[in-house]
Each structure stands twice: as structure tokens, then as C-alpha cells.
Amino acid sequence: MNLEQLRAKLVELRDLPAETEWAEFKHNYSDPQMIGEYLSAISNVAALESQAFGYIVWGIEDGTHNIVGTSFKPRQQKGQGNEDLEPWLNKRLAPKINFRIFEFDSEDGLPMVMFEVQAANTAPVAFSGRRYVRVGSHKKPLAEHPEKERKLWEIVSGPVIDWSAEICETAKIDNLDPNAIQRARSEYADRFEGDPKKSHLAKEVWEWDDVKRVIPADSVIVPWTETIHYKRKQHGYHGGATPQEMVCPLVLLTDRSSDYSNLKQCAYPFPDWWSPAPVASPVELEPVVHVAVPAGPPTLFDNLEPDEPSAKEATKPAPVEVLPASADWIDRLLASQAYKDQKSKIKRHPPQDSVIRQVLETLNAAGGFLTPGAFIKETSMPAARLDQVIANIRRVLNVDGYEILVIDRTENKVELNIAKLKRQFDVE
């Protein structure tokens, strides 16, 4: 906070009723142990009173709220031993809370000190192992007031209303809680206060308008730190956002009954060699090699003509083209009584014959085996439907549990055991 804001806050605190428990006024009292206990008490009672912050102010008379100034110098004060007051207090607060120390002069030129103390938000705050609370104008151990302790635990551990779950069409900037805006400025300033390159932002934030700029419709504002939560921290929800989450791919799930005419399916572009259909390799016949007969004495059969040309005269045979097996058996299978009986057992959503024929013809032409990618390419089937289509056809073809049609994502294959299928439906 700048000087003008500090003086305005001072006027606001002085105007509070004397019984306000989340604001404490002191003159010069500066015992370190008592200050720590007051930090615990003010933090806890601020949560009980639904305040974002509580305050301890030095330089004001407690009864009259008159400004008298103070000789307390928190930056020069020591905790115990030679340790500075602020880190000494921080080490003894549990759980950790933010508190900020401001030293400034009142409008009358009198020195003032203000502690701004964050309200408890995850558990009641303790100092040196003990929790405190304000009761009227007195600081008391929280354990002596079980009703306040129970209520405080309900506040810090109960579910928080997710204000981001609804859109308030009529909301205006004036509807924002001033304490929420103040906290946002404070945390922003704390973020850059120790950064020599960006420390100016810690000062400029107090001069900015409450609405800095209009966010475009295609943009989103997310918390920059995981310590900020819309709801209570739990497994699977850590608060804030991370760069990984901001660039992760999105999955859009659709149903068949709705119209998504503006959506286009985008598949990751694979290279051509990723999923080519298997091509039957030509088979070459090896030439016949004749073994020469060793020379010897003449025999009765020396003048006979050889039945085959000699090895020197042998010519290389033409390559034999391997054609896919005939698909006539598919017609016989679809017309067979065994097929009709098997299909009649499926009462809900049996696969159509045309779909079964397409799958069988595609796999038969490929020798019974294709990768899922190649199968999708050959059949022009949507990738999202492949597993469902294969599973549906398996109910017809995989008789008695035999693995005739298989899709295996681990081995990256769609396989049809054609020989076993023919035997099962007696179409050999």
C-alpha cells in the first residue's frame, strides 16, 4: 500500500466499533512473544468474521482511538537472540500466513506501524505451538473457547463456494469485495517486490485502476500460482495452472444424436510408410542345377539326348505373380445357415452384412493381416469407430470363443484367421 492508502486504511480502522475483534491498537508495546500471539489471534478471528485480513496498529490509544504515535521500530526490533523480528515470527507461525509490516507517518506527522495479517485459510493459526483468538478486547487461548474453535475448523476445512461456476450477467466492478481487490494487489506486489528487474511493478500495482483491460472473448485468466484455489485442495485438484496444462491437447467427446456440422475431425498426419497395406511379394523359382557326370570309360547310354537342357542352357524363369485368394467363400459364408443362426443370436444391434463383407474382403485381400492404420485407410472407416465395429463383428464370427477375428492394440494388428473361419462355418 502507498502512503495515501495507508492513511485511508488508518481512518477506516479508527472508525471501527471498539468491540471489533480483528483490529488491535497499541501504543508502544513491543514484546516479541506477545506480538506473535496477537498474529495468531488476529488471523483466526479474521477468518471467524469473514475478513480477508486483520490489523494490528501501533501509535493509537486503544480506548479512544486517538493518534499518539509510536516509538516501536519493527525493522530494528529483534526476536530472540540476534534474529530480526519478522523472520523470527515467521518461523513460529503454523501454518504459514502472510503478514506485511508498514511504517509510515500519519497526516499529523506522527510515526505509525501497521501489521496487515492474512486470515487463517487452511487451519487455525498457532504461534509457538499454541492457537489464540480474540474475545472482546482480550487475547485468549483458542482451546478455552471450544465453540469458536469448532466454528473456525468448519470455516477453514469446509468446502468453498466456487464463484467461477456461474456467470453473473449483471455483475459490475462495484460488486467486487474491496478486500478481495486489496488482497490481489498485495499478492501481486509480493511476487515482484524482491525481483530487481520487476520491483517497479510492486509499486505501480497500487496506482492501477481496478479494471486494467478488457479480456478478449477467446482468452482466459488463470491463477499464476498453485497456492490459489477455487475450492479446497484435494487429490486431483492442486489449484492454479501450469504451463503444461495450458498447452495440453483437448479431447472433445460427442454423441451421435447431436448435430456437430461445424466440427471437423483432425487426425495427426502420418508419413506414407506408416501404415501401407501389405503387398504380396513375387516368388521366384530357383533354376535347376545339373551336376556334371565325371568322365570315364564309354558306356551303352552315352549317345542318348538329355531330357532337360543343361545347366548352361537353363534360363531364368519369369516371376510368378501372387494373387489374393478368391473371395467366393465370403459369399458362401454369408449365405450359409450356420452364419444366419449365429447372427440371429445377437438381439441388440447386430452388425450389417455389408459391414461384415467389407471387413472380410479387406482382410482377405491383405492375406488376413493389417495394421489398424492400414485397415482404416483401406476401408475409409472413422478411426474412433474401429474398435467398436470389430467388437461387434466378433460376436458373429468368433464362434464358441475361438479367436477368429482379433484387434490387438499392443501388437498393432487387425487379424483374421481365414482357415479357421472357413472350418467354423463349413465353407471350405
UniProtKB/TrEMBL annotation:
Domain (Alkaline phosphatase-like protein PglZ C-terminal): residue spans on this chain: 325-426
Residue ranges constituting the Schlafen AlbA-2 domain according to the UniProt record: 19-142
A matching Pfam family: SLFN_AlbA_2
Domain of life: Bacteria
Protein name: Divergent AAA domain protein
Organism lineage string: Bacteria, Pseudomonadati, Planctomycetota, Planctomycetia, Pirellulales
